[in-house]
């Protein structure tokens, strides 16, 4: 029952974190981006959410859900700025400023949110760990508007992937 509850809770959280990803027939083209599959039965998993209040809300109870499900090998990070759009994430990234009020992590075995830094920048949080998954969220009123994603989404993905390519992790 606990595993079923965890799966349902994660789906609900993901729906809250990733609303409106129906881009009809439009696709995202990312230069030199390879979408590697998640490892099967990983010994650990590191997930970073970069977004706004939906990211905050969607991830708030994940540490507690993981704890109650007996899962202690997941590190979570969240970098949140209320009402932040992809364009604003991009502006924070390109300016290099610490444009997010806080950066928090939930460490494996602890399963509770802990403050890492206030304020924090985009590059600093992305470079903090070798994240397995990074989620970037669009503000809800623009979530279904594909035209509002570009060029910001591609450039943010490239900013995340570039350091990995330099060390040979991504081809």
Automatic annotation (TrEMBL):
GO terms for molecular function: hydrolase activity, acting on ester bonds. Residues 46-160 form the DUF4886 domain. Gene3D superfamilies: SGNH hydrolase (3.40.50.1110). Transmembrane segments: none annotated. It comes from the Bacteria. Signal peptide: none annotated. This is Putative secreted protein. It comes from Proteiniphilum saccharofermentans. The lineage of its organism: Bacteria, Pseudomonadati, Bacteroidota, Bacteroidia, Bacteroidales.
């Amino acid at each position: 029952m606990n595993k079923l509850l965890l799966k349902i809770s994660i789906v609900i959280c993901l729906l809250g974190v990733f609303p409106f990803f129906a881009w009809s027939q439009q696709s995202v083209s990312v230069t030199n981006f390879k979408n590697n599959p998640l490892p099967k039965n990983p010994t650990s998993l590191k997930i970073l959410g970069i977004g706004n209040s939906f990211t905050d809300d969607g991830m708030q109870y994940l540490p507690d859900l993981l704890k109650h499900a007996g899962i202690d090998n997941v590190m979570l990070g969240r970098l949140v700025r209320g009402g932040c759009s992809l364009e604003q994430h991009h502006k924070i990234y390109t300016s290099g400023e610490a444009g997010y009020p806080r950066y928090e992590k939930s460490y494996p075995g602890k399963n509770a949110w802990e403050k890492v830094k206030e304020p924090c920048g985009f590059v600093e949080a992305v470079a903090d760990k070798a994240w397995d998954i990074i989620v970037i969220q669009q503000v809800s009123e623009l979530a279904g508007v594909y035209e509002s994603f570009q060029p910001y989404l591609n450039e943010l993905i490239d900013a995340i992937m570039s350091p990995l390519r330099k060390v040979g992790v991504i081809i």
